[in-house]
Design a protein that fits this description.
Strand 1 and strand 2 form a beta hairpin. It is globular and about 70 Å long. The chain has helices at about 40-55, 60-75, 80-90, 95-115, 150-165, 180-190, 205-215, 230-240, 265-275, 290-305, 325-340, 380, 395-405, 420-430, 460-470; strands spanning about 5, 10, 20-25, 30-35, 125, 130-140, 140-145, 170-175, 200, 220-225, 245-250, 255, 285-290, 345-350, 370, 390-395, 410, 410-415, 435, 450-455, 455, 470-480. Helix content is about 40%, strand content about 20%. With about 475 residues, the chain is of the alpha/beta class. It has 15 helices and 22 strands. The relative contact order is 0.14. It has a seven-stranded mixed beta sheet with strand order 14-15-16-13-12-18-19, with helices on both faces. It has a six-stranded mixed beta sheet with strand order 9-8-7-10-11-21, sandwiched between helices. Strands 5-6-22 form a three-stranded antiparallel beta sheet. Bound molecules: ligand TXE.
Length: about 475
């Protein structure tokens, strides 16, 4: 099967007829091909977007909102088909795709369908000067959206929905590792009545078509989610052109567990925050710090709980963990486990490949717990991005705060305590963009989302996303 580019509302082959193999991680087989798009394909996609912009940017908010709502409804209608495609393409459990990925993709469109009707701008009355200022929030024009493989449709739509809601036209590129649901979205866009050219989807490798989108002189804003190194490279290319940039990058998120927390809730959530989606979520808590007085108990209970997780083929409804996304990624994750001792860690649970009956060539790995002694070790400093967490004890609040902040990343933190003062002190002092207290991954789409330090720049979510995808213009009128 061949996936096609979606340009100007039509499905087209790459002009140079170059293709990339697409793997099914659950069994290691090539099951489709995707366009290895070139500059020529980008030229066509850009042209379609540019042509569509004057009309789309002047389309009423009600009409835009209606179309986004249509898209949301169609995604919901086609949930079984989209979830199955996501599980096959990514390796994640089908149940997870059904309950999280696809519903969230629909929610992204529905949220911004509503949000755009409430997006207002400011006026400033220059009292005593007989002048009034008002600020327009105008769409930027053609913008670029580049998304990763861990939550394919979920993150792709998280960018696209606010971009088009705000009146922009888009050239978007999903990850070449998980292109399928973005491809299926094209059909939905047509059915929903999105005018031709408003959203164009080009497939291919980051180094060619991704790079070309970022380097395109007339694509004025880039929203990117992916690895920190790629983000740094994108910033380097885009900065001299003064593009607007929103970069959502990696994380090495601390989970801080105090003895005074609600223990059972914490344990259940910590298992999820460690291993959901095979640990391939930028928000997973991968450095777990436990107050010394409950460390031994936690260690025993955590191992017991994790040992109950089932690694299995993604289509088996009893699988808690599916396959990792690709062979190179599996190898990257394994190299941390294999070198754990050298890095000062001790694997206390898991660490082995798993062979699944009838899916023997898939990329399966046990959920893995490594005990470490020092937060400065490689295992606590580098993003592993797989089903691997570290645990270590701490003695007091200052010590754990210092360790939590001793990281080049700053995306999110999870805090488990029932002490309100401690909650406030730590939440204010921790260097992350997001803090969850007594919960994990509870998302309200109105809230700002993003990180500090090497976790990126800019915020998406709610009005922040609409601000990113618009350019403020102040108009000052003098009257006498
Ligand atoms: O991501 P890439 P990779 C982390 C995780 C993972 C590491 C590398 O640690 O192991 O990043 O993953 C496109 N110009 N995260 O290499 O390459 C690429 O085609 C423009 C965290 O798979 O950053 C894809 O569409 N685009 C993360 C997207 O960037 C380029 C999720 C992301 O891929 C490009 C994924 C270029 N030069 C990985 N090079 C998170 N924050 O959730 C690549 N791309």
């Amino acid at each position: 099967m061949k996936i096609k580019n979606y340009i100007n509302g039509e499905f087209v082959n790459p002009i140079l007829d170059n293709w990339i193999d697409n793997y099914n991680p659950s069994n290691g087989e090539i099951y489709s091909q995707i366009p290895n798009s070139s500059d020529i394909d980008l030229k066509n996609a850009f042209k379609a977007a540019k042509n569509a912009f004057p009309k789309w940017s002047e389309t009423t908010l009600e009409k835009r909102s209606q179309i986004l709502s249509n898209i949301a409804h169609l995604i919901t209608e086609k949930l079984p088909e989209l979830a199955a495609a996501e599980a096959k393409d990514n390796g994640k459990p089908l149940e997870l795709a059904k309950s999280i990925d696809i519903p969230r993709a629909a929610a992204n469109f529905q949220f911004f369908a509503n949000a755009i009707t409430q997006f207002a701008s400011e006026t400033h009355d220059s009292v005593g000067l007989n002048a009034i200022n008002f600020t327009l929030r105008q769409p930027i024009g053609v913008v670029g959206c580049i998304s990763p493989w861990n939550l394919p449709l979920y993150l792709f739509t998280w960018k696209i929905a606010p971009a088009i809601a705000a009146g922009n036209c888009v050239v978007a590129k999903p990850s070449e590792i998980t292109p399928m649901t973005a491809f299926l979205l094209g059909e939905i866009l047509n059915e929903a009545g999105l005018p031709k050219g408003v959203l164009n989807i080009v497939h291919g490798s980051g180094k060619t078509i991704g790079q070309a989108i970022v380097a395109h002189s007339e694509i004025k804003a880039i929203s990117f989610t992916g690895g920190t190194q790629t983000g740094a490279h994108i910033a380097k290319v885009a900065a001299p052109m003064f593009k607007k940039l929103s970069l959502e990058l990696g994380g090495k998120n601390p989970a801080i567990i105090f003895a005074d927390c609600n223990y059972d809730e914490m344990l259940e959530a910590t298992v999820r925050s460690s291993f959901a989606n095979q640990g391939q979520i930028c928000l997973c808590g991968s450095r777990i710090f436990i107050e010394a007085s409950i460390y031994q108990k936690f260690k025993t209970d955590f191992i017991t709980a994790v040992s109950k997780l089932k690694v299995g083929n993604p289509f088996d409804s009893t699988s808690d963990l599916g396959a990792l996304v690709s062979k190179p990624h599996l190898e990257k994750v394994r190299s941390y486990i294999d070198n754990a001792a050298q890095y000062g860690g001790k694997v206390i649970f898991g660490g082995n490949l798993v062979s699944i009956h009838n899916f023997e060539s898939g990329y399966y790995l046990e959920p893995t717990i490594i005990e470490v002694k020092d937060n400065s070790c490689v295992l606590n400093q580098e993003e592993i991005f797989g089903p691997v967490v570290t645990i270590m004890p701490f003695n007091n609040e200052n010590e754990v705060l210092a360790m939590a902040n001793d990281s080049s990343y700053g995306l999110s933190a999870t805090l488990w305590t029932n002490d309100l003062k401690k909650t406030m002190r730590i939440s204010k002092q921790i260097h992350t963009g997001i803090v969850w207290v007594n919960t994990w991954l509870l998302r309200d789409l109105r809230t700002p989302f993003g990180g500090v330090k090497n976790s990126g720049v800019g915020r998406e979510g709610g009005l922040e996303a609409l601000r990113f995808f618009t350019e403020p213009k102040n108009i000052c009128i003098k009257y006498n």
